[in-house]
User: Fold Delta(24)-sterol C-methyltransferase from Phytohabitans rumicis.
Amino acid sequence: MTDLDAPSLDVPEEQLHRAIRDHYDGLVHLYESLWGEHIHHGYWAPGEEGGDRHEAQVRTVRELVAFASVPTGAKVLDAGCGVGAPAVHLAGELDCRVEGVTLSPAQVERAMEKAAEAGVADRTSFRQLDALRTGLPDSSFDVVWALESLELMPDKTAFLREAYRMLRPGGTLAVTTWCVRDGGFDAEESAMLTQICKDFAIPYMLPMGRYATECTDLGFTSVRVADWSERVRASWDVDMNSDAIRALLRDQSHRLRLARTEGVAVLRLIKVVPVMQAAYRRGLLQYAALRAVKPS
Assistant:
């Protein structure tokens, strides 16, 4: 095995932000049709793989709530809130007050719709902001929550520092994020990671152990990192679980119609599914949960 560094996208931050906005603005409806209202990995207990995808995605939220000990009634910043499903869940089940931020205006609009439909608009708000530099007040949140958004950020340390600043003393950072295996990669693995980074507008990914080091260096305490890879990898077993996926894989004319209406990103999304499956199977791609506490 050649000891290659983990691939990264060497592009200016402004260009990366534009790529992320374009990606999620263009595919917001398609993602919901393929993945459901929760646009993130599901969590399956052993033996439950192949079960209902929506239940598994809700379980991911509940597992992170439990892992990070998110308290009832907490004031939460949802950094990279997507279309708002986790925020709506936190507001509805835990009576949290949630402020969601995202780079995508289309996601802001959809998140507001979902919150209104769920009857939690009075406990949620969403706006277009950069999670690395929100401008929000110091020590203003009980929880900073980032469910599958940290991998998209061009400076992981800057986000962790910003989270520390915004947390109240005793407040908790709750994160799930895509990671890479710690160690070298051969040329084939490096190519796989490069494709994943390009297709999902990910600047780079870190080994999960780095997050424990980063948080400790920034002053967080009670830092815990857990490997959830085996619990979430079934999220990519989508080729035969969805009528929409079957249609996409079978019908070239349907793919071309989607490309015209949704943009060429839809074709990249289809092609990257088997790459994601292989990356998890080889242990190349990993999925981490992170909890850290700002000292009282």
